[in-house]
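pasting for the record
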Amino acid sequence: MDTRTRVAVSAALTLGLLAGCGDDAATPAGPAAGGPAPQATGEPWYDEVAAASAGGTTGGASSPCPVPVSFPLADGWTAKAIEPPKGELAELVGEALTKRGGTTVRCEVDGRAAGGGFLRIWAADSPTVTPRAALEGFATGAEEKIAGQQFRDLRAGGFDATEMTWLATDPLAEEESRNWALAVQSSGQTLVFAVNEGLITERTDVLPAYRLAVRGLAKSE
C-alpha cells in the first residue's frame, strides 16, 4: 500500500466515513456478566481501568452490529454498521478500510460524543480459525510494526475467549500505540473486538467501553 493510500485509510477511519446511520442504543443493558476480576494492574493490560456504565445493547442479525452475539454499549456510545466505500474512495483504497489480516469489519461503536474513541468488531473470514490465530492475523494485518505481543485466556460474558495486547508503530506518523483485542467463537464465526490508543485517545478513553462490551457478551442470532 503506498503512502497516498495509507493516508486515505487513516483519515477515513478517524472520521468514521464508513459508518452507517443505524443505532441500537435504546434499551439499557443489564450488568456486565462474566468479567474477570482485575489481574494485572498497569502495563500492558491495565485491569484497574473499570468497565463503563451501560447505556444500551446491540448485536444480532437485525441490529446495526450484525454479529451472532449481543453486548452492552457504554453510555453515550452508538453502534453503526460499516458499509463498503463507494466512489473515488473505493477506487483509491479498495478493501483496505474493511479488511484486515483475514477479518472483515462488521460494525463500529463510536464514542466520540462521550469523549471516547472507537470499538470495532471484526469477523474472521475463515469459519475454522481459532481465536488466537484470528488475533495474530489481525494484529499483523495493518502493515504496522508490532512488538510486545502478549496473550491470555479468560471468560468474556458467556464465552471462553482469548485476549491479546501489543504495541504498533505507524510507519507514517512514527507514533507508537497500545492495542487490545479479544476474540470469541459463536455460531460458526470468530469475532474480534478491538480498541487502541491513538493520537487523541488514551487508554482511559477506550478501555472502559471495551471492558463493558466483552464482559457482557451473550449469544444472539
